[in-house]
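We treat protein structure as text, and this decision shapes the records that our systems exchange. Because each token names a local backbone shape, the row as a whole describes the fold. An entry from our holdings is shown next, in its original layout:
>
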Amino acid sequence: MGSAKNTSTPSATDRRERIEEMRRAERARARRGRIAVVSVSTVVVAALIGVGAWAVTRGGDDKDTSSDAKPAGHFTYDKDGVGTWSAKLTRNHVGGKPTYPMNPPVGGDHNQVWMNCNGDVYEKPLANEHAVHSLEHGAVWVTYNDKAPQKDVEALAAKVKQTPYTLMSPIADQKDPIMLSAWGHQRTVKSAGDPAAAKFFAAFVQGKQTPEMGAPCTGGLGQ
């Protein structure tokens, strides 16, 4: 008596169909995985763009609000003609262009980057917010307008080039032809040979008025 045919054994055709079905299922899972990754990536990128836009907006707000600071005060002068600013000078690092109640400025909020002041002589006007930071480091800033005799400009430039913690630049609208400024202090001098100029350098180059004694005058901004 012969054995009955075993109908539970899959045929070759059944096996091929089963393998193809498994492949289709695997391809479908792969597609779903790619879609999920793209969706998550899109959400992450959108979130980062949103955070970046918020940060830019906040940065712009900081610039707008900080640049309005204008410290009150006035100069009081000693018997030698050295002016001292009467009010406390703020020292915040800000963006934008702060306004100053004196020209040249002798302190106040300023940019986080200073002008190089290691005996640097600049041919063009400086941004006040960078030069003020140099004063905070103990520099003396020599400024002049077009009424200053050329021989005095050249002599002062030679002096500055030989003196660390000094810088020099033109300021067209300052009130006197030659002016010297330090943090919180300022004076006018008559000429490069005026003894008052040497006294000002001696007193205020890295003088006791310096808020950040020993801070560098290199590694900053140049022209």
